[in-house]
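User: For a benchmark we're assembling, each entry needs the component sequences followed by a predicted structure for the full assembly. Here are entry 17's components. Please fill in the structure.
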Amino acid sequence: MARIRIRNEWLELHQFTTRIIIVAVIGLLLLLAVATRLFYLQIINHSHYVTLAEGNRLRTEPVTPPRGLIYDRNGVLLAENQPSYELDIVPEQVPDLQATIAALSKIVDIRPQDVKQFYDLLKTKKPFQPLPLRTTLSDTEVARFAVDRQDFPGVDIRATLARYYPLGQITAHVVGYTGIISPGELANLDPAEYTNTSQVGKIGIEGSYESLLHGSMGTRQVETDAQGRVVRVVSYTPPVPGSNLYLSIDVRLQVAAEKALADYNGAVVAINPRNGEVLALVSTPTFDPNQFIGGISPNDFAKLNTSPSQPLFNRALRGQYPPGSTIKPFLALAALNYGVVNPFKDLLCPGYFYLPSNPNPYRDWKRGGHGEIDLPNAITQSCDVYFYTVALKLGIDRIHEYLTTQLGFGEPTGIDLMGERDGVVPSPEWKRKILHAPWYLGDLVIVGIGQGYLLVTPLQLADGVAAISMHGERFVPHLLHAIGNPLSGVISDTTPRTLPAVQESDPNAWKIVVQAMKNVVATWQGTAHSIGVGAQYSIAGKTGTAQVYRKRLGIFGEQDESDIPWQLRDNAVFIAFAPVDNPRIAVAVVAEHGGGGASTAAPIARKVMDAYLLRQAGGKVAVP
Amino acid sequence: MTFSDFAFSPAHGDLTFGERLLHRLNLDGPLLLAVVILAFMGLAILYGASNEDAGMIYRQAIRLGLSFVVLLAVAQISPQFLRLWSPWLFALGLILLLFTLHSGHIGRGAQRWLGFGFVRFQPSEIMKIAVPMMVAWYLHEKPLPPNWKQLLPLATMIFIPVLLVAIEPDLGTALLILSAGAFSVFLAGLRWRVILLLVVALAIVTPILWHFMHAYQRERVLIFLNPQRDPLGAGYHIIQSQIAIGSGGMFGKGWLHGSQSQLDFLPESSTDFIYAVLGEQFGFIGALVVLALYGFIIARSLIIALRAQDTYSRLLGGALSMALFTYVFINSGMVSGILPVVGVPLPLVSYGGSSLVTLMAGFGVLMSIHSHRKLLAT
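Assistant: Structure for entry 17:
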C-alpha cells in the first residue's frame, strides 16, 4: 500500500530554511577561500609576483615597413628614405612629463610646435605607446642624449627612416610629401598598420598611392629590461616593404619646363598622347617638400601659405583659367560635328560683331578685321568674329554637351593625383544654380573666344590637345608608369586606360583642324609663326590670350598691355603637339599675366618640345 | 496596481518618495542598489582592462541599459504567471538548443550562436533560467522532499539541456545550468542518502566523462593541475593572471596603471580574466570589496527566497541566487588559480551581452518574487 504523503507547510518551510542556511554557509566558506587565495597572492607573495611582473620581458612590437621609393621614368630617384633618429617618449614611464620635456630641451632643440604636436598626439594615443617628441635629430643631438640617457626613464632614441626628396622643389607638385599623421587622418587609417609609424603621405603621389607606398607591418618579439628598453630580439616576422613607384615624369623635361617658365607664375603640362602618360607637370612657383618632413615650423608654413604667389597651390591641377583663343580648335570640332558651318565658306570679319538688340559691338583682336575668312584660316589667324558666329550657331547646349562629354572639360580628368579641380563649362542651368541669374546671348558669344564663364585647368587643356593630336583617341592622364616589387625586383608597367573616342561626324574635321593648327606655327599669317623658325619637327599649336577677370570688369581692351599693372595683364596660354603626323608630345602652357599667348607662352612650349624631341637617344640624365 | 498592493505595508503613510517608487516598480531597494553599484564599477574596471577603449565602454553601457530594461520588465510579471509559463519556456529553450546544434553559427570553434536577423544569441542562456523554473514548476504541487519516483523526471529535465550545451561544446554554461538545476533540487530537500549516492555515482562516471571530453577541455584540467606544463601556451592564462593579481598588492597599481593588463600580457583581459585586472589595478582591497558586493547580492537574493510564500518561488529564487554564486565562485576561483580555466564570465563586469541579459532577467525574477508577496492572514 502506497504511503500517502501529506503536505506539511511548516515542515517544508523549516526544511527549506535549513537548506538555504547550508548553501549560504558553504557559499560563504568558498568565497572566503577565494579571499584567502587573494591574500596569499597579493599580500604574502606580493614581492614574488612584482618580480615576475617586472621580469615579464617578452613583448611583441610592430615593425614599420620601409616606404616605397619613387623614381621618374628613367630611374632618377625622386623620393628616398634616409636613416633618421626620433626622440620617443612613453608617457606612462615618465614621472613628470613637463619637467622631462623641459630637461630634454636643454640637450636637444625642441621647438614649441614639437611640444604642441606631442600633446595633440597624447590625446589619442594607446597606453604605453611611444610618441615622437622630435624627429630628424642631428648626430650631435643623438650623442648628447645618449650620454644622459639614464636620467630619462621612458625616453628613448629610435632609429627610423625619414623621407628625403633629392630634387626638392622640382618635383614637389608631383611627388608631394609625407608628414606626421594628424588625429583626423588617423581615424581613416587602419590602426594596425600605423601603430608604429608617425608619417603618412599627405599630397601628390605620396598621398594618392599611400597604400602602395606604405607596405604592411611586420612584428618582432623582443626581450626588454625593467624600463621597457629592448635588450634582445627573440623572433622576427619581416614587414612587407612598400612598392617602388616609377612615374611617367621625365625629370629632364620637368627641369626644362620649369626653366622655360622662368619667372612667370603658371603651369606646364606635357602628355604623351599615345597613352595619357604625363611627361611633365610643372607649377610655379614651387616649394621645398623637405621642409615638411618632421613637421614644418608654423613660421615657415605661414610664409608659404600667405605668399601672394601661392607656392603651395598646384596650378597645373587646381588653377582654373579662361582658355582664351585656345578653345577655338575645340569649338571648330564641335561646329563640324554638328554641321553648323561649311568650313570652306568665307565669312566677312569687319573687326566687330553685333548682336541684334545690343548696340555695343564685340570686337575682334585685330582692328579692321580679317576680311573674308574661312574656318581653317579663322583658327590660324585666331579670328574672333568667326568664332562669335560659331558660338551663336552652336548654341550653349551643344557647346556644353560637346566640351564636357566629348573633350572632358568641366570635369576632373581622373589623373592619379588628389585635389584636381573641375573647371567650368557654363550652361543656363549652371548659371541659374550658381549665380542665380538668367542666361544671356552675350554670355554665349564670348564663350566662342574662350572668355566669360568658361574656365579650364592646364591639365584639361593638355588632355584636350592630346586628343586632337590623336584625331579623337583619348586616354586618362596618369603619372604612374610602373610598379616595382622591392622583394622580387620585378617591375610591372601599368596599362593605359582608354576613354571612348571623341565623336566627330565630319570625316575631314580632324585633318582640317590639325592642318589649321599646323599653319598657326608654319605660315606667316599664323599667330605663333615666330616659334616655327628653325624647328626640326612639325608643330601644331594654338595661341590664347585670356583676359584676367578683374580687367574684363573694367576697361574693355582699349588699353595697351604695357600700360596695365602687372597683376592685371592678360594670361598667356598656348597648346601644342608635335610632330604633327606622328605625335609624341602634347603640351599646355599657362603663364599668368604673361601678356600674349604668342609672345610668351608659345616660346615656352617650343623649349619644352625641343627638350623632349631633340634629346639624343641614350643621353645622360643630367639633374641639377 | 490595486489598492491591495499598498495594503500590505502597514506604515504606508510613512514611506518616502523613493520607497514608494521602488514599490510601484516592484523592485527591491537593497538588491537594486548593489546591482547598480556593481555595474558602474564594472564599467570603470572594463575601461582599464580594454586599454581605454571608449567605444567598448559605450557598447557595454548600452547592453547594461537594455538588460536593465529586461530586469524592469520581468519584475512586473507575477511568479504565478512565470510558473504557468515555465514548461513552455523550457520547451522553447530545448527546441532552440536542438536547432542551434543543427544549424547555428560557429564562433571560436563552438556552435553556440543562433542568428535572428541582426540579433544573435545563445539559446543555452535561456536554459540558465528555464531549467530551475522547470524543476520548481515540477515540484510546486508535490509534497517535499521529492521521493525516489520523482528523481528520474528531475534528472531528465536537468541533464538533457546540460548535455545539449556540453556538446556544443560550452562547458562553462553547461556547468552553470547543472548547478542551477542541482541547487533547486537540493533546496527542495533531497535526502542526504540520495545526495551521497549521487556523489558516489559521479566518482564512478568521472573517468568515463573524461573519455568523452574534448582534447582542449582535458588539457585545461591538466594544466590547472600543473600550469608550468605549458607556460607559453594554455598555462599562460593562469600564470599571467596570477602575476597580475599578485603584483597588485594591497592597494593595487592604480586605475589604468596595470602593466600586466595594459601591456597586453594578460589575455582575455576584458572578458573572462577581468577579475585579474581588478586585482592588479585596485589590489587586495579592491578585489575584496567587489567580492563582498557579490556576497551581499547573493545574501539578499537568498533572503528574498526565504521570504517567498510558495514552493515555486522559493526553489526558483534560491536556485537563481546560488547560480549567481556559482558564476562568481567559478570565475574568481579560475582567475586566482584555485579552479581550472572554464569559460565563465564575471557577472555584470565582463564585456559581453548575451549572459548579461539572462543575469538581469534573473534579478528581475527575484524582484518579482520579492514584490508580489501577499499579505498573510494572521
